[in-house]
Amino acid sequence: MIDHYTDHAANERTFLAWVRTAIAVVGFGIAGARLGGALPGDWADALVLATGALVVGLAYVRMQIVRRRINSDDTETDEATPADGVLAFLVIAFFGLLGAFVLRLSL
């Protein structure tokens, strides 16, 4: 059996949740951009895809940091990492932009 198996499994589940969030960000972003009627430029799709890739990349970094903490023999506090803050900021910013887009469509 792998040492700390349940901790590693929970860490990987959290990583997969961030991947699902990134897929949702990309899907909502591309679909939302097309709701306005006029097709957006290629730069808009590239920006949304880059944001999704950034979320997956940061989630991977976060998973590796937590994996090292799990495997460490030292007792460490369970503090948030900088990657956690950036991930949260990206998701909050995305939903803020989505809300602004919905308001623009309703006016």
Description of the structure:
By secondary structure, the chain is an all-alpha fold. The protein has one domain (5-106). Helices cover 80% and strands 0% of the residues. The protein is built from three helices and no strands. The protein has helices at 5-35, 42-71, 82-106. The protein starts with a helix and ends with a helix.
What is the N-to-C order of secondary-structure elements (H for helix, E for strand)?
HHH
Per DSSP, the total helix count is: 3
Percentage beta strand: under 5%
Number of domains: 1
Flag low-confidence runs.
Answer: none
Structural class: mainly alpha
CA radius of gyration? 17 Å
Question: In one word, what is the shape?
Answer: elongated
List how many beta strands DSSP finds.
0
Q: Kindly state the mean pLDDT as a whole number?
A: 82
Fraction of helical residues: over 70%
Summarize the biggest pleated sheet.
none
State the separation between the terminal residues, measured CA to CA: 59 Å
Give a quick rundown of the structure:
The chain has 107 residues and is mainly alpha-helical. The chain contains 3 helices and no strands. The chain has helices spanning 5-35, 42-71, 82-106.
